[in-house]
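Hey, quick one: can you model this chain's 3D structure?
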Amino acid sequence: MYFSKAIFGIGGHISSIDAGGDGDADPYLEGMRRELNEEVSLDTPYTTRCVGLINDDETEVGTVHLGVVHLFDVERPAVHPREAEIIESGFRPVADILADLDGFETWSSICMKALFGGN
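Sure thing. Here's the predicted structure for all 119 residues.
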C-alpha cells in the first residue's frame, strides 16, 4: 500500500466477524480493538474517548465511508507499528502537524483542524 500523503492516526473497517457468535459482543468495539491490535502495539497505559464523526463527501473514499474518531491519551510514547506501511510512524508536536496540513490526507486534516484548530 502506498500513501501519497501522510496519515494522522490509524483506521480500519468493522467486519461481520466482529459481531462474534455469542450475541453479547459489541461489533463496533470489537472491530475497533481488532483493527488497533492489527496496526499497532500499545505498550503503555492509555485512555480513549470517542470525539466525533467524519463525513467527507469531497473525496471518492469519503463518499462511501463514515469515520468514527477516537482520541487515545497515552502515558508515554510507547506505541509501535505492526504493519510495514506504517513503519516510519511516530509522535510529532501538534504545532508541527498543523503547520503542514497540506501534507496530510483529507481525514487527517479534518481531524487535526477539529481537535486542535488550524486553517
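One thing worth noting: The chain has a mean pLDDT of 87.
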